[in-house]
Amino acid sequence: MEKTELQVEIPSVLKQTSCQNIKGFDCVDYGNGNNPNPLENAISDIESRGESTAGSNMTRLERKDVIIISLPASPSGLHIGQTKLVLHSEKCKNTDQNNTKNPYPQLAKQKKFHSQPILVRENGDRKVVHSEAVRDHRFDPFKTWSGKLERQISNLRGKPTQEADIEAGASDREEIEEAPGVDRYFDALEGPELDTLRATEVSVLPEDEKWPFLLRFPVNAFGICLGVSSQAILWKTLNTSPAMNFLHIGPMPNLILWWAALALILFVSFVYLLKIVFYFEAVKREYYHPVRVNFFFAPWIACLFMALAVPPSIAVNLRPFIWYILMTPIFMLELKIYGQWMSGGQRRLSKVANPSNHLSIVGNFVGALLGANMGLKEGPIFFFAVGLAHYIVLFVTLYQRLPTNATLPKELHPVFFLFVAAPSVACMAWAKIQGDFDYAARIPYFIALFLYMSLAVRVNFFRGIRFSLAWWAYTFPMTGASIATIKYTMAVTNIVTRSLSICLSAISTFTVSTLLVYTIIHAFVLRDLFPNDISIAITRKKPKFSKMLAHFRSSSSDSKDLDSSISKNSEF
Amino acid sequence: MEKTELQVEIPSVLKQTSCQNIKGFDCVDYGNGNNPNPLENAISDIESRGESTAGSNMTRLERKDVIIISLPASPSGLHIGQTKLVLHSEKCKNTDQNNTKNPYPQLAKQKKFHSQPILVRENGDRKVVHSEAVRDHRFDPFKTWSGKLERQISNLRGKPTQEADIEAGASDREEIEEAPGVDRYFDALEGPELDTLRATEVSVLPEDEKWPFLLRFPVNAFGICLGVSSQAILWKTLNTSPAMNFLHIGPMPNLILWWAALALILFVSFVYLLKIVFYFEAVKREYYHPVRVNFFFAPWIACLFMALAVPPSIAVNLRPFIWYILMTPIFMLELKIYGQWMSGGQRRLSKVANPSNHLSIVGNFVGALLGANMGLKEGPIFFFAVGLAHYIVLFVTLYQRLPTNATLPKELHPVFFLFVAAPSVACMAWAKIQGDFDYAARIPYFIALFLYMSLAVRVNFFRGIRFSLAWWAYTFPMTGASIATIKYTMAVTNIVTRSLSICLSAISTFTVSTLLVYTIIHAFVLRDLFPNDISIAITRKKPKFSKMLAHFRSSSSDSKDLDSSISKNSEF
Amino acid sequence: MEKTELQVEIPSVLKQTSCQNIKGFDCVDYGNGNNPNPLENAISDIESRGESTAGSNMTRLERKDVIIISLPASPSGLHIGQTKLVLHSEKCKNTDQNNTKNPYPQLAKQKKFHSQPILVRENGDRKVVHSEAVRDHRFDPFKTWSGKLERQISNLRGKPTQEADIEAGASDREEIEEAPGVDRYFDALEGPELDTLRATEVSVLPEDEKWPFLLRFPVNAFGICLGVSSQAILWKTLNTSPAMNFLHIGPMPNLILWWAALALILFVSFVYLLKIVFYFEAVKREYYHPVRVNFFFAPWIACLFMALAVPPSIAVNLRPFIWYILMTPIFMLELKIYGQWMSGGQRRLSKVANPSNHLSIVGNFVGALLGANMGLKEGPIFFFAVGLAHYIVLFVTLYQRLPTNATLPKELHPVFFLFVAAPSVACMAWAKIQGDFDYAARIPYFIALFLYMSLAVRVNFFRGIRFSLAWWAYTFPMTGASIATIKYTMAVTNIVTRSLSICLSAISTFTVSTLLVYTIIHAFVLRDLFPNDISIAITRKKPKFSKMLAHFRSSSSDSKDLDSSISKNSEF
């Protein structure tokens, strides 16, 4: 019975001892009859004694911190260890050189392919310490210009001993470079934002340490820009609306918020641009993520918001060309996204429907509003029409809650506030196009209002949901509803509408402020505003059992569980 | 092999003999060789002779009207009889005292827990006669103030012998008090109105006799009010519409119908109020019923109809505050119902979609119509907008006939006429809001007309469906279409529209009259207008096999079937 | 163990040899020990020796071109061969007479019922040659007046030997006469137009030769009329539209196209009328086909197009009665089709949704447009309203791509261009009804434009799809979009809209021209414009294994495959 070995070693040992002395690693010392590779030892022991029973294809031996799990060398077994193997190859050079002396070349070759140190398990309290000499290659597959050069140099140097490493690295790279299919996202992730790894999945990036900042910086971050820039519009409206004159709100809040929003957008855009440059693979994976892709509308919508919120002191009339520039990427994205809905496959609407799809709709109405503000006519109606058609489709689909909507959260969730966004912006857009807050504008407004109330009375459903950066995107619908209410108040001015305006504005400002405090706490106190972005680190294929096991091990604190689970599995 | 016993006894025997003499009851007399309890007999016989085979866990013996089914005392077996056991405990006191003399205490103890008289089976023609001394406790769980007081008194008296009874009663009560989940309704009931018990289900209330009137009085009864009050509107419209002047219809029909409708509403409301007071549990179960819940809109819609139909001789202009009062409960219910559609779970729209959902939509349009009639502006548009949004969702969902719409009838059914209701009222509402029967009003009107025709040509599909009180609710859409046609005739007056008005009015009046005759026949001749309302009597959990069996027995008239089915089952 | 026999014979042999000498046919020669019928041999062998093992219910013997498959004579086995048996009965008379000499009458009787020559397998290169004396009965079941008379004559002649034939023919006829259920269409066919037989299905008509022309002439042919007549409208619009004056397009293209379209419509109608007369069964099956049924709208829509495209030189104002005549069949079909969507069963919308359903919607808008052109008011709004309601339903359903939409193609397909049809015609209809290309008209126009663009950018998806007559129906939406653009250009005249008009018109004309060339090539060069219309030739019930086998055989060129598959099957 052929066996493949998973070997687990304490890295710190690596640094203290020479490779020859490491037990259970690829380095083999043939000095004595007692083969120093305990694995070989163990297997031969077992095999010679004939003690290995047919039923148990898993043997677990532990000797001096070394855990060896032998697996049948099935084709799937061959993939073992492709994930995290790049670690200590440099150190092993002499080991590999030793291998040339291997009196059992066949065995050695087998080992070369099969046994690689895949799991860096912390034993006891000892931390994994990476020597500075060893560059961390684990994030290479996500880097735009990574490793390639180094590998070429290595190849030029002609080190045959690194072949196995490079080979494995290549297959590793291959696994990552091609972004996972959309079904993999559904299979591997869960939660309303598809951002939590399922228990049976493993991440292609290390889960036990913080990733580079850029890798952790998601496109959701543009949600903050949405939240702040929409607040800027709200305060501009409060300032300029005659119906709200009695509040005597000056132009300052708008001005401050606008500059703040501008700074935010510039900062977030800059950082995300860096991500695009340095981690294009990660961006690609965000783009293929069925929920995350909708956030790619966010930067453009934020810019539209900025154009809408521009303080009168800076500019009164914006040039229409800005509108054309901003609407182009939105239009392109829509052609892409709506086309995917319709043209089937794994991204068809009955599969991907999620409240965050509203982000891909609302851009139409915001664009229509801005265009109408600028005095354009046909363009705004075009986007209004496109938005309307797809909003009906999305509204019905989301309300139906088809059983195939895998990502629709079981319970209500802040993401549902996106329901309010489209109709509240649509009513303003129509009012501006039509030049009057007429019945056709009031219908979407009242729909937005009803949805708002419907969600507000269910607000206790939202308790107990952990904070996420994406929440920012869920605040702008509230702000949008407030602005729409103010516009409505301008058409129907009475005590009720005025109170409603003040009330909704207060709620939205309060929400944004609260979220800001939360964000600051998470960013600077808890320092976990940008956790590892697991969504982009899923494997391209369903992980093999061995990987799941490895994942399980690395996450389980008690090896007893593992032992028992292994022994349990080995019975099958 | 442990056995649990289901014992079936004729209650009348109970009253004539002392407990010791009751066969098949908990009281066991070990005095003579002819053990009066045939169950014990049977079991001991079988056990002593060792004849019970492992495969057959069901033995059926019948002796002197007593049917005993022995079941394995599995955990599920322990639940047997928790439903209807409260019957004759008082009578059994001495029995229990006798039990203390039981020479086989172990057996007695087992019996105490396991064997309770659960099924009162009528043997032959003999009727179940309840002595006045024995209050019928079977409906207690549905009563608002039931049994609690009595039980407290019993406890005060300190009768330890009643403990088992109380305990069991508590678990019984527990089972009923928590209303069944919505999935239970789908699992346990069938038919387009989810009002028929599936074959595999048992009712928690006795199916073989008439329940108290209030328990049988469903919320559907408000459908009659809808039917009659909408007729009042029709005749008011026929009277007042200039386009229909040529018919010379006076104000009397409207007046009579209005007073009749008022009387009906008051009566039905009063009776239902009694039900709320005395059988709150039953009302709760109606409210949780996924189809029935829509009928909770009916009383308010009927009131709106009354306000619309108010004869000019009584009032010309109603005060707007009436509108606010009437719309509040509708608004509250909508927040609840639409929220359930959206927020998922078992009540999501793709699961509960049923034409009766139109009742929850149509209130919006009726409210909008009344409000516009009263001269209100924003309120009506609000409800019109809410109605429109949700009508589109519902219309698409119902037209699609998703496979998950468990309650959607396979064939057409009168309930489909509710499709006509919303657009026909919507067109009137919009015409009133807009002040003109414009194109926007004609579109819903023509949709209603097409749906009407589409259903009318399929009218033969309706044959062979048994009469139900809910049918009343399906007449008002026809009346609504007639009224809308008259309104349309006022806009487009010609021979075709006039003929159509007369035709549709005649059909709707004829339908209502026919239904009235049917209802009177069922109410006073057949006396089955209010059959047992099985929909509210489903068990909270899937019934165990034993209960199904019991149900099967009580419904099967021929014990031969049972015998064969038992023997068949016992083979497995 | 009873056995049924499938016998396969080379027909040409039948004609050359006397029946007695035919091996493997019903005629049995008991003269020599070497029984020439290996089947009888095998059976008698098996039966006499009682050696038939339970596990293998398939024995395969081949001797001298004869393949015999023995199957258990289960009730399903009795149906074997009911499909194609009518072939050579006349020839067998003497065989049957010989059978009277059969020393084993019981066996002979069994044979009479069980073994019929069902498969006309070509052996090697030899072609199936039908003698002129033998009328081809295979298409009889689809003929309106077929065989009945002949059979009656045969019966009068009193030929008892034909009984088996007639009997089998009757059951054959029975199988065909009742059109297959809609689920059969879904089960048996595949492809976006449900026009390809699945591998496991057999055709009731011979697949290996060309059917009569009328049987191959599908209702899709009216698509050509749609394509040409819509072009006539386009060139009329280009001629008459003031905004397009600068192109100086004369009235001739419209005139020529109109007359061409008229000729086409008359020709196609005439041929299809012949089909209705002579092959009513085939028409019925087209009507029951869930995708094909939508094409029954095509002739009427084509007539509406003709009325819209009528050259000013022929008539300026058409009489409204034409509109009423043309709309009646459309209205009737709609009552039928939409009713099926709603009333459930296998034709419910969530099951049959397919872009070709747009054909059943677009008639409403074309009718509304024509009616409004004629100066009618209420009729057009009626159809506009009906179209709008059902378009929303269909649009949402198609966009959602429910998993139950069995017929929705996986990839994009020309059929998707039908998405563009309804909104582009709707905008013109509304503009005409309203008397102005207002915002309400622009919204559907822009929706159409977006959908057009969305499909255009995916045009490479269309590659590699084989040509089909149905493509013609997918060209008129492009033409419709062009016309709508010209109408829009009349409202908003500038360089962009003019360019767009020219561009879209050019594309649509180019597409139609290309398609025309393709059609001519297929019609006159390749002579495969009308291939066998497999869609109508599916069996009413799921084919039995034996039939599938037979189908498999007839289609497989290598009998080795069959051998192995049979032997493989026999192992189970």
What is the succession of H and E elements of chain A? EHHEEHHEHHHEEHHHHHHHHHHHHHHH
Strand order of the largest sheet of chain A: 2-3-1-4
Mean pLDDT of chain A: 71
How many β strands of chain A by DSSP?
Answer: 6
* Shape label of chain A: globular
Main sheet specs of chain A: 4 strands, mixed
Q: How would you classify the quaternary structure?
A: homotrimer
Query: Which two chains have the most extensive interface, and how many residues on each?
Result: A-B, 31 and 30 residues
Radius of gyration of chain A: 29 Å
Give unreliable regions of chain A as ranges: 1-133, 159-176, 555-572
Structural class of chain A: mainly alpha
The total of helices of chain A stands at 22
Task: Report the span from N to C terminus of chain A.
Answer: 16 Å
Strand content of the residues of chain A, in percent? under 5%
Helix fraction bin of chain A = 40-55%
Describe this entry's structure for a reader.
3 copies of one chain form a homotrimer. The first copy, chain A, contains 22 helices and 6 strands. Mean pLDDT of chain A is 71; it is low at 1-133, 159-176 and 555-572. Chain A has helices at 11-16, 38-49, 93-100, 105-114, 148-157, 163-177, 182-188, 213-216, 222-240, 252-278, 280-288, 298-309, 320-343, 349-352, 358-373, 378-400, 418-434, 439-456, 476-491, 495-525, 545-555, 559-570, and strands at residues 3-8, 60-63, 66-72, 117-119, 189-190, 196-197. Chain A has 572 residues and is mostly helical. In chain A, helix 9 (222-240) runs antiparallel to helix 20 (495-525) and helix 12 (298-309) runs antiparallel to helix 13 (320-343). Chains A and C meet through helix 13, helix 14 and helix 16 of A and helix 16 and helix 18 of C. Chains A, B, C: It is found in: Cell membrane; Endomembrane system. Chains A, B, C: This is S-type anion channel SLAH2-like. Chains A, B, C: One of its GO terms (biological process) is intracellular monoatomic ion homeostasis.
